C-alpha cells in the first residue's frame, strides 16, 4: 500500500516538488512537467516523453543528456492534458522540431495528438509517436492495438539517443518506429497496487496465483496462473516474448527484466539468472541487459520481460551513454553543460488569447446558468466518485471517478471566473472545457474538454439559444467525440449514452418541444442506455483486453455522462 502522502489529490504535485529540488542539476520545472536544466542546443531535435505518474523512474527520472529533453507528468495513471503536453514540448523545443512520445493509451494518444496540432499552429515542427510493445494486449497482426508498457523504455532511449546524435526530426521518428517494431514485452503481477489515500488495491491476485499480461496502470492480468518458482517464471516470460518474435535475422537483443515496484532487485536477479541462460541457449547474444526498476506501477508486485531485437543502428543507440536522475550509462555530457535555462516557465507559456467583449446581456445570462450547472455537476460527481471508480476498476484502472471530480471541479472554477469577467455561454463553456481537460487528464478529460468546447462554439456568446440551436450544439458535441476518440457506438464507451441522448433531444425538439423539456426526457434515455452497456464487451481502451470481465458492469463513462445529463435537467427545473 502507498503509505506516504499529504493530500492524496495533490500527490503528483507534491512528488514533483521533491523531485525537482533533489535533481536541480538535471531538470527544471515547467507547467505540466519537467525539462532539462540546460537549454536545447541549436540543431538538436527535442524528445519529450510522458504519461501519467506512478511509474518512476519513468518518465521524469530519465530527463537528461543522452535521454529525454522533457517529460510531461500527469496525475497517477492518468494522461496529462493537451495543454500540459504542449507546455513541456514548447519549453523543451529548440529550433529543430520536437517528438512527443508515450505508451499507446487512448488518453495519451488524444491529448498528445491535440498538443501536436496546437504546437504546429504556433510554428513548431511537432510530431507524435505511440509505443505498442505489450504482447498480451492484442494478438500478432493487431500490433497497433497493443499497450505501451516497459518497452516504452527501449523506444524512448533509442529515439533520444538518435536526437543526441544529431539526426533530424525525420530520422528520430524513423528510429522510434524501428525500435518499437523490434520490441516485445510480457508482464506478470503477484499483487495489485494501491493509489495514495485508497484503502484497497486496484485489483487483487488470488492466493498462490499470478496474473499474466498485466498493464502498468493498475490493470489486472488477462489470466491467472499458479504462482511459479523463479526458474519457471523465467521460462514463462522468455517463451512468451520469443513466441512473438518480429521478422528478423538478428540474434543480438537488448533485454530488460523490469520490476514493477515491490519485487526486490534480489528476486529479479534470481529470475534473470535463468532467463539469461535460456536466451543464450536459444542462440541470442544479450547486449547491455538491464535488471531493475525502470517502468514501475506504484507498489505493484510483479515484473516484466522486454526484448528488443537489434540491428547496427538500434544497438548503437541502445548502448549510447546517458546521464539522468535515475538512469546512467557510459559517459555522457555533463548534466550542467550548455546555457542554463533562465525562465523555464516563460518558455512554456502559450500565446495569450484575446477574448474581450464578445457577449451581450442575454449571453451573459446564459453564462451564469452554465456556472449554476457546473456547481451542481461538480457536487454530484464528488458524491459519486467512489462508485464510478469501483465500476471503472472492474476492467480498467479505477481512476474514472477521481478524474471526473478533478475535471468538473476545475471546470466549475474556470466557468465562474469567465462569467464574472462578463463572458457569454459559449466562452464560459470553452473555458470550462479547457480546464476540465487540463486538470482531469486521461481519456475522459480530453473528451469532456472537446465536448464542452464544441457545444460552446455552437451556442456562441450572444443571444439566448433556441431549442434547435441547443440540439445542434449537442450533436456537435457528439461529433467531436467521434472525431477525437476513435470509438463508435457499441464499443462500450460514453458514446453509448451520448448518442441516444442526442437523438432523443433532436426528435423531441423537431416535434416542437422546448429544449428544456426535451432535455429531461433525453436524460432518462441516456440513463437507460448507460445501464444497457453492462451487456456489452468493450472494444477500445484499457478495458478491451479484459472484455469478458467487463460484462455485467456498465461503462463508467456512459454512466457519468447520464448522471451529468440528469443533473443539468435538475438545474433546468420544470420549465417547458
The portion of residues assigned to helices is: 40-55%
Using the CA coordinates, give the radius of gyration: 24 Å
Number of helices: 18
Q: Provide mean pLDDT, rounded.
A: 91
Unreliable parts: none
Distance between the termini: 52 Å
Sheet/helix structural class: alpha/beta
General description of the model:
- With 576 residues, this protein is of the alpha/beta class.
- The protein has 18 helices and 15 strands.
- The protein has helices at residues 11-22, 82-92, 106-121, 152-164, 169-181, 230-242, 265-281, 312-318, 344-347, 361-393, 400-420, 425-440, 442-459, 467-485, 495-510, 515-532, 547-550, 556-572; strands at 27-30, 33-36, 46-53, 70-76, 98-103, 126-131, 183-191, 209-212, 223-226, 252-259, 285-286, 290-292, 301-309, 322-323, 328-329.
- Strands 7, 8, 9, 10, 11, 12 and 13 form a seven-stranded mixed sheet that branches. A six-stranded mixed sheet has the order 1-2-4-3-5-6, with helices on both faces. A two-stranded antiparallel ribbon has the order 14-15.
- Helix 15 packs antiparallel against helix 16 (515-532) and helix 15 (495-510) packs parallel to helix 18.
- The protein is globular.
- The N and C termini lie far apart (52 Å).
- The model has no long low-confidence stretch (mean pLDDT 91).
Amino acid at each position: 500500500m502507498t503509505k506516504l502522502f499529504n493530500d492524496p489529490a495533490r500527490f503528483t504535485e507534491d512528488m514533483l516538488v521533491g523531485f525537482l529540488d533533489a535533481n536541480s542539476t538535471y531538470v527544471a520545472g515547467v507547467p505540466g512537467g519537467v525539462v532539462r536544466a540546460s537549454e536545447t542546443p541549436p540543431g538538436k531535435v527535442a524528445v519529450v516523453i510522458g504519461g501519467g505518474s506512478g511509474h518512476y523512474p519513468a518518465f521524469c527520472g530519465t530527463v537528461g543528456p543522452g535521454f529525454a529533453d522533457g517529460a510531461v507528468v500527469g496525475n497517477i495513471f492518468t494522461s496529462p492534458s493537451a495543454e500540459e503536453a504542449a507546455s513541456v514540448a514548447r519549453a523543451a523545443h529548440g529550433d529543430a522540431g520536437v517528438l512527443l512520445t508515450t505508451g499507446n493509451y487512448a488518453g495519451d494518444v488524444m491529448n498528445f495528438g491535440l498538443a501536436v496540432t496546437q504546437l504546429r499552429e504556433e510554428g513548431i515542427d511537432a510530431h507524435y509517436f505511440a509505443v505498442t510493445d505489450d504482447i498480451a494486449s492484442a494478438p500478432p497482426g493487431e500490433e497497433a492495438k497493443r499497450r505501451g508498457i516497459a518497452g516504452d523504455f527501449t523506444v524512448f532511449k533509442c529515439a533520444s539517443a538518435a536526437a543526441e546524435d544529431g539526426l533530424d526530426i525525420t530520422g528520430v521518428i524513423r528510429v522510434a518506429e524501428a525500435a518499437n517494431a523490434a520490441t516485445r514485452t510480457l508482464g506478470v503481477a503477484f499483487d495489485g497496487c494501491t493509489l495514495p489515500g485508497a484503502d484497497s488495491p486496484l485489483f487483487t491476485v488470488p492466493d498462490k496465483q499470478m496474473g499474466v499480461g498485466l498493464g502498468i496502470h493498475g490493470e489486472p492480468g488477462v489470466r491467472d496462473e499458479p504462482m511459479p518458482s523463479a526458474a519457471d517464471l523465467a521460462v514463462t516470460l522468455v517463451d512468451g516474448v520469443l513466441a512473438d518474435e518480429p521478422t528478423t535475422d538478428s540474434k543480438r537483443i537488448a533485454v530488460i527484466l523490469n520490476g514493477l515496484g515491490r519485487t526486490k532487485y534480489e528476486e529479479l536477479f534470481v529470475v534473470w539468472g535463468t532467463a539469461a541462460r535460456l536466451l543464450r541457449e536459444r542462440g541470442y547474444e544479450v547486449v547491455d541487459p538491464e535488471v531493475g526498476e525502470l517502468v514501475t506501477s506504484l507498489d505493484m508486485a510483479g515484473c516484466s520481460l522486454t526484448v528488443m531485437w537489434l540491428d547496427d543502428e538500434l544497438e548503437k543507440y541502445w548502448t549510447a551513454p546517458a546521464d539522468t536522475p535515475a538512469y546512467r550509462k557510459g559517459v555522457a555530457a555533463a548534466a550542467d553543460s550548455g546555457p542554463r535555462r533562465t525562465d523555464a516557465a516563460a518558455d512554456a507559456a502559450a500565446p495569450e488569447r484575446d477574448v474581450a467583449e464578445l457577449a451581450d446581456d442575454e449571453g451573459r445570462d446564459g453564462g451564469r446558468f452554465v456556472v449554476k450547472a457546473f456547481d451542481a455537476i461538480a457536487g454530484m460527481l464528488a458524491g459519486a466518485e467512489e462508485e464510478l471508480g469501483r465500476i471503472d476498476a472492474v476492467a480498467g484502472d479505477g481512476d474514472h471517478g477521481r478524474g471526473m471530480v478533478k475535471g468538473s471541479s476545475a471546470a466549475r472554477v474556470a466557468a465562474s471566473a469567465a462569467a464574472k469577467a462578463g463572458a457569454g455561454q459559449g466562452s464560459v463553456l470553452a473555458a470550462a472545457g479547457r480546464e476540465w481537460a487540463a486538470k482531469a487528464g486521461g481519456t475522459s478529460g480530453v473528451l469532456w474538454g472537446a465536448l464542452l468546447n464544441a457545444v460552446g462554439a455552437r451556442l456562441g456568446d450572444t443571444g439566448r439559444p433556441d431549442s434547435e440551436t441547443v440540439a445542434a450544439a449537442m450533436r456537435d458535441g457528439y461529433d467531436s467525440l467521434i472525431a477525437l476518440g476513435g470509438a463508435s457506438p457499441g464499443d462500450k464507451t460514453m458514446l453509448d449514452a451520448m448518442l441516444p441522448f442526442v437523438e432523443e433531444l433532436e426528435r423531441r425538439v423537431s416535434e416542437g418541444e422546448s429544449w428544456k423539456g426535451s432535455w429531461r426526457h433525453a436524460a432518462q434515455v441516456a440513463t437507460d442506455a448507460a445501464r444497457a452497456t453492462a451487456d456489452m464487451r468493450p472494444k477500445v481502451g484499457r478495458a478491451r483486453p479484459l472484455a469478458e470481465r467487463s460484462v455485467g458492469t456498465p461503462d463508467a463513462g456512459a454512466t457519468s455522462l447520464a448522471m451529468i445529463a440528469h443533473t443539468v435537467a435538475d438545474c433546468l427545473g420544470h420549465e417547458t
